[in-house]
Design a protein that fits this description.
Layout (H helix, E strand, L loop, with lengths): L9 H11 L4 H8 L3 H8 L20 H9 L25 H4 L2 H11 L5 H9 L2 H8 L14 H4 L4 H14 L13 H48 L1
């Protein structure tokens, strides 16, 4: 069940389930792939963002019978009836959310430093940027170069690990790099060690970011809950 697909709009779906069913917070959180505190904050109107509910029954992701089973048995895990169809872009440049666009220079700098074999065209397609921007970062003429810090684009959310690995492999193949042809001055073991270190660094950064986000979320929810309880006590 841990690998089953999640609703197309998890927060909006969770909002609808909270408002229209008697399902437990843990059941809704599990089905929507959210933290239970997020669901409870929605129920208590403490969530930072308000979502318009999305009916998963109408969307075909749940059936009424499945909801009734969950309401009758608090330990029941809801089963997705039909996985949502992923929305994909087939034309145009890679779309990057506005909140992440400021991270692009950091991701570009990381690729230039760690994978010089990747061409500007490949970087542009992977990150969704222009050759002029890449060139400015490479020759350090970018207007914000003093604040650019090389950061893994996967950790920044600019691309997936699979996409980055595919580009690296394609660039290496084009450059003529094979398992039997190791760059001068570098042994196979050294190269493998470097790759392993970069992978460990990336995984550690992702884990730390996830833990920090969960801790901050839990702390914010608890603080809001305590403030609400204090207001209630003061009014008595």
């Amino acid at each position: 069940m841990a690998d089953q697909p999640k609703p197309l709009m998890p927060h909006a779906t969770a909002t609808w389930l909270v408002d229209n069913t008697g399902l437990g917070f843990d059941q809704i959180a599990e089905f929507c792939g959210l933290h239970i505190l997020e669901v409870q904050a929605m129920a208590d109107d403490l969530a930072g963002s308000k979502y318009t509910g999305r009916d998963p029954v109408h969307a075909g992701e749940l059936t009424q019978a499945e909801i009734e089973r969950g309401q009758a048995d608090p330990s029941y895990v809801l089963k997705m009836q039909k996985a949502p169809v992923e929305v994909t872009r087939t034309k145009g440049p890679r779309y990057t959310p506005v909140s992440k666009r400021q991270d692009k220079p950091d991701g570009i700098a990381w690729i230039l430093r760690n994978h010089p074999e990747i061409s500007d065209a490949q970087i542009g397609k992977l990150i969704g940027t222009t050759r002029n921007t890449i060139g400015a970062i490479r020759d350090r003429s970018h207007w914000n170069i003093s604040n650019i810090q090389p950061k893994d684009p996967v950790t920044l959310g600019l691309c997936s690990q699979r996409e980055l690995d595919a580009v690296v492999a394609k660039a290496a193949k084009k450059a003529g790099a094979t398992e039997g042809a190791v760059p001068a001055g570098e042994t196979t073991s050294d190269r493998e060690k470097l790759i392993e270190e970069l992978r460990a660094e990336r995984e550690a950064a992702e884990k730390a970011a996830n833990e920090a986000a969960q801790e901050a979320e839990a702390a914010a929810w608890l603080e809001a809950k305590r403030a609400q309880e204090a207001e209630g006590d003061a009014g008595e």
